[in-house]
């Protein structure tokens, strides 16, 4: 049940809590745009994350508003005022106004007519309490109008101050409406929670995981949240809670290795969702990429870590702190510094499991170097007298091996001379 009556304000001393004025301090261009929007839509309010983060004194990025006017009226009013507007989600009541290059997402107040755990059919309403009641957590259910008053029907402000991430109303109901809220709970608890997580939420999440609720979600939505958890704060604590509720086993059914990830975190690895996923999960990179629908770039990065469930597979080249200059040049000739750096964190975690100045120095050196580039191509081999065909690639590879053996130092002229010697020797 809400702590306050619907529609009442909580802690609304305007002089101290004028969030639009506070926004002018942290995001001056955002306040100027808001003034233009409020001139057109005076009943609109800031909602969700922007209110939460302004109250918490955190950086603000997205500026989301809600308004009682239906979306077609919002669209018409903004266009009449000469404000650029894009119909980004009319089916869900959302348009995006663009002022001085900054987007402002404006959504008509809604209530859920029907939900299936993945999607909701909504209807417009002019009742702010109805709209707030459909939001996930109390800290995300606050709103603030142009007068600076914070409207808080569910005690979100007190929860924010206490570090208590709590579902609006009954947790099981909120999760049945959208199972993605299971993962969102862990993400928000890591960022805003303190101490023991909400018991009712944890019980509802465990029940939902056991019932297979997460299986109804698209892989893209799951990875979107999991990526934020893995790259966010308190990652080990979050994953521990996910293990406790059975969520982690549902997401990674082939198994996972929390101690391995703990060693990586202890080594000082920066938040990196792909690196953390590769060290944590016991599935092959290909299987993980397919299940989570990773992008091509993400899948390639995951594969480049050299983590595989096949113990017979060869380990890719690993940068070592003791590697000499030529060895480092050879590694960079084969792979980008970013790949080598990511792989070095995995190996450091396995071998050291603690911070290391030597490994840090290696990474800094790799990133500072220009990548050696082999200066010849197949056309050079043909120009040297080798007929087009499979032999061209074989000869080119032999010259590249010679170039690599010399620490990737030879320039084009020296490589051409070596190519010509090889062609003459095999003529």
From TrEMBL:
Domain tRNA nucleotidyltransferase/poly(A) polymerase RNA and SrmB- binding, first and last residues per copy: 201-254
Family (UniProt): Belongs to the tRNA nucleotidyltransferase/poly(A) polymerase family.
Taxonomic placement: Bacteria, Pseudomonadati, Pseudomonadota, Alphaproteobacteria, Acetobacterales
Keyword Glycoprotein (UniProt): no
Entry keyword annotation includes Chaperone: no
UniProt GO MF annotations: metal ion binding; nucleotide binding; nucleotidyltransferase activity; tRNA binding
Positions of the UniProt region annotated as Disordered: 308-327
Protein name: Putative tRNA nucleotidyltransferase
Any one GO BP annotation for this protein: tRNA processing
Cofactor(s) of this protein: Mg(2+)
InterPro entries with a match to the protein in the record: Bact_CCA-adding_enz_type3_sf, NT_sf, PolA_pol_head_dom, PolyA_RNA-bd
Protein keywords: Magnesium, Metal-binding, Nucleotide-binding, Nucleotidyltransferase, RNA-binding, Transferase, tRNA processing
Domain Poly A polymerase head span(s) in chain numbering: 44-166
Entries under Pfam families matching the protein: PolyA_pol, PolyA_pol_RNAbd
